[in-house]
## 1
Amino acid sequence: MRHLLSTKTISRDEAIVLLDIAEDMADVAGREVKKLPTLRGKTVVNLFFEDSTRTRISFEAAAKRLSADVINFSAKGSSVSKGESLKDTAQTLAAMGADGVVIRHHASGAPLVLAESGWIDAGIINAGDGTHEHPTQALLDAFTIRRRLHGAASRGRDLDGVTVTIVGDVLHSRVARSNLWLLTTLGAQVGFVAPPTLLPADTSAWPATFGFDLDAAIDAGPDVIMMLRIQAERMSASFFPNPREYARGWGLDDERFARLRADSIVMHPGPMNRGLEISSAAADSARSTVLEQVANGVSVRMAALYLLLSGDREDS
Amino acid sequence: MARTVLTQADITRALTRISHEILESNRGPDNLVILGIPTRGVVLARRIFETIQRIEPSATDVRVGSLDVTLYRDDLSRTRTRTPAPTQVPGSIDGKTVVLVDDVLYSGRTIRAALDALGDHGRPSIVRLAVLVDRGHRELPIRADFVGKNLPSSTEERINLHLTETDGDEFVSIEGGNGA
């Protein structure tokens, strides 16, 4: 694997290999020495043009557990705020000898530009670009679902026949897009539930079902229900009248949570708006995987870094 | 052309002898942890474990597992990306006698990686090495304690080692080189 930019281009076999390696990486967390020498001497740059503490520290922990050196570069207070272009930033990082670049950018497609421009010869990981994709989030979600369903026998398994309902701001969500492609590739059936204003205008190319009624979706008893965060920073236009109305129509409140199938898994990519898209009872229950998702995120990112940064670069 | 040097019966006899040697050098089955290196080392480790249990039916403390070394190799940035295999270390190895088991001992680099990996799981009191075939050409100061068959070979020759569990048939053969 040369870069990890999108889940749309990942094959089923590639995805399963990555998830299996993540299982090996997860085992490391249970050992006496929680560190591997695998990427010793490699440099990973976290290039964050958008604030994201969770994703950045998850990548940082993953790179450090593999013994890579980590450089954190955030746009705020850097040369970027003085007007430096992506090209100059990339060439600066190349001159410093970065082997891998983890990039988060507010513009969809920025990681692809970085990967194809020739400005820098490093493995590029997309850590979220605009409203496009967030592949490692989808991979950690798939990993979490697989572990919940198959436990210790997860290795080599796909998600054939698993039903996943994704609820909330699908329009702006890169998590929703990355999950759609990956989960579908792994054999799961994805359904979206959202207010009509928060669904994309044209969904004809998406292999999923669409609905507006969360109650009906819950009564259908999905294996997994994934609540998306309402992103206050993207709510400039009036997509819904007010937060209370959104919570009433599309929030996983206590009453809906009680009606959910008893073995359904409740997921949320974090950070949560408690009381808005998810109630505390649902978020803190045993069926919630919110904290597992965080822990699994480190394992999955270790696997991605390993696949990108080990091996002969010419060969991959 | 491939020349068979060990048949299935030879392999079984070699593993039985190695099992006896392990018990002899350890003065019994106490504190033994047998760890196979994937893929075929795991199969051999399991067979040695079963043989030891047959020889010493009272030995309940012997444990068996696997130790993958992929993430500890020193050639990760020189070859194609390798996919790791699962590691399963049964319980603590602190103070135990660990016997590493591999199929073919060659450069010694796999064993170097295994020793590093082992150190991250705990601190055994003794580490020993058992291999089915030692073909020479060491690049590091490493030697095996228990050897099924010494097979002096040239670097141009290939050693094929098949086991029933992984390959369907079972033999050790040598091929290539100058008409061997």
## 2
Amino acid sequence: MSEVVISVRELTKRFGDFTAVDSISFDVHRGEIFGFLGANGAGKTTAMRMLCGLSFPTSGSGTVAGYDVMHQGEEIKRHIGYMSQRFSLYNDLTVWENINLFAGIYGLSKSETKERAAELLERLNFASERNTIVGSLPLGWKQKLSFAIATIHRPEVVFLDEPTGGVDPMTRRQFWELIYEAAEGGTTIFVTTHYMDEAEYCSRVSIMVDGQVRALDTPAKLKQQFAAQSMDEVFRTLARGAKRAE
Amino acid sequence: MYAIEVNNLTKSYGEVRALDGVSFAVRRGELFGLIGPDGAGKSTLFRLLTTLLRPDGGEAKVDGLDIVKDYLAIRSRVGYMPGRFSLYPDLSVEENLSFFAALFGVKAEESYDLIEPIYKQIEPFRTRRAGKLSGGMKQKLALSCALIHRPSVLFLDEPTTGVDAVSRSEFWDMLAGLKQRGITILVSTPYMDEASRCDRIALCNEGRILGIDTPADIVSNFNSRLYGISSERTFALLEAARAQRGVVECYPFGECHHLVVDEQFDVAQFTASLSDFNDLVIKQVEPTIEDMFIKLMKR
């Protein structure tokens, strides 16, 4: 089996007497596209915050990119990438300013930033847009740029939190091609989505219900296990059984 | 008579043309969907029809009333649920409901029969502050408030965005119930799979309407052969397939890639030239709304 990039065991988060995340365990391997699904209120966001070093678990253990989720939140933040549809780039800054800002936040030196920015602009065919205000770019370009910036520090794993919400069907597909490409290049992808067809694009999918991981396998095996035609059906079967009101 | 009539409506914000000559009509009692991504102009259209904005050009009528001349009369006849949560977070569930009832000069009890199927699901939390509700409960309260004055036309701007697949399906069940009561509903969504829940839909993109029809007829106009292809080597297959003769388009589509082809396409030849994909599966598939949307976008 290939190298493990995310590994959690019995990871739990309680808020008072409410158990938001209830003893979840799984491994994610290098180059995998790992789909992290769950109904609203199932505990996805809380789990993801712990994996991104933004919140510490109440109990359990785990590592992300080799760092301990219990004690090394700051190191984790520096070694992962993060992108969401709601927040990705600053619309009032130029392409270059956005790159420079995020490279700085991720701790790249000036020379590294310069070198990687040039490489990034070249790869995306964006050199002529270097001084363009991001807000004026077409959505598809913004997404490409946003993904490239989220990975500018070459993180081992990138977290994508509903990256394609509200995006047209063509742009959504172009974005998934970027994801495939990055995964084939060895970047691990951890992605949440409400689009069930996107769950089919993942190497493996986990489905959370009431704070627990209730299913975890390849889309093909999950459909087999639940005697379902589509991931949508698998998801509905599991989520309908939820006891927790969102 | 139509409940909503829109004729060549345009609206720009500075240099951005949000609505670029949109026309359509919604019948009384119809559940009509505006399907399209962000930037399609859906929210602008809602703000024009609910008289919160004035158009730059064109005209529209809601419930027979002109959106510019008769704006005040329209406001008491329509219910509007904006895309962003717009209730008062510091008021409780029941206070929000009474507040909106008071604004429209009605009593909440008088509309209880209409909102009951929706409101009873959040009634156990009626003393909770609206800001402390979960996403799904906020959505139900917002819908209850939009219905409190028994509007004849209901405008719902992306009510299911960011909501999980199960809750989305339940929300559409509620809309079907309201339609039964004779309310005309104009609803927008970026989720193509929700189109089938509407009587008719308009596919919208970048301020224009690409097509209007029943969901079934939109799909039946696809007019191209469509195949589903799959292999373990997902990404490589995509690129290889695009280079083959007769392939117009190849894009990821859930568990397989969709392959739109023209008359030059030959299955045997295609399979032969992709022989290094030894697990290649190819089968003819039925197009969906999303395939049609992609096709219309390219036009």
